[in-house]
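Hi all, long-time lurker, first post. I run a small reading group and we've been trying to get comfortable going from sequence to structure in the token notation. Rather than ask abstract questions, I figured I'd post a concrete chain and ask someone more experienced to write out its structure so we can walk through it together at our next meeting. Sequence below, copied exactly:
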Amino acid sequence: SKNCKYCYNFLNHNIFMKILIIHGQTFEFGGAEKSMLGLKNLLEKEGYEVKFFSYFTKENSKILYYSKIRKIFSIFYFPIIFRNLIKEVLKSDRIVVSITGNIVCAPSIWSGLILSKLFNKKCIVYIHEPLLPFWGLTKLENILLMPIRWLDILIFKLFKPKIIICNSEFTKKFTKLNYKIKDEIQVIYPIFHLA
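-- Answer (accepted) --
Happy to help. Here is the structure in token form:
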């Protein structure tokens, strides 16, 4: 299909290529996680070497899991995650940054975008849901998240990858509006069935 060819052109058909998938958390397991594991399985079947990076897991995220307010403090893990990702990015040929609507993913997303640009690695961003959606948040949460939302937009503008993919037309429309993107964005629907 057209979408598959689009992805494979990005990967250059090099079966020895090392792909790094950066997904911020795995303490929740929903559609985004299934889709990224599906992508990992698909790439491995094609012969690629794939590394799945996720900093926040069930083991180290219990304090964050039960409170949206606590999750805001996850951004202070940025220096740790950035440092941990440097080695992984250097060892990889291509980077896939997975964006979901969970603030704990922010340090991994920002680290992936910045490092791929610094080390001149081809990067593709797959947006399952905007990082900081406006829906489902209280007024207090929106006020507390506003500086982080501005920082997210700034980092995305400064280190924007050439290839952006969304999982639906709705996400594409919101992404273009939120990040003021004029470039074309591809829509590739999730591949849950391969997870």
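A couple of things your group might point at:
The chain is about 45% helix and 15% strand.
The helical segments are 2-11, 31-45, 62-65, 68-72, 78-91, 106-118, 139-158, 169-179.
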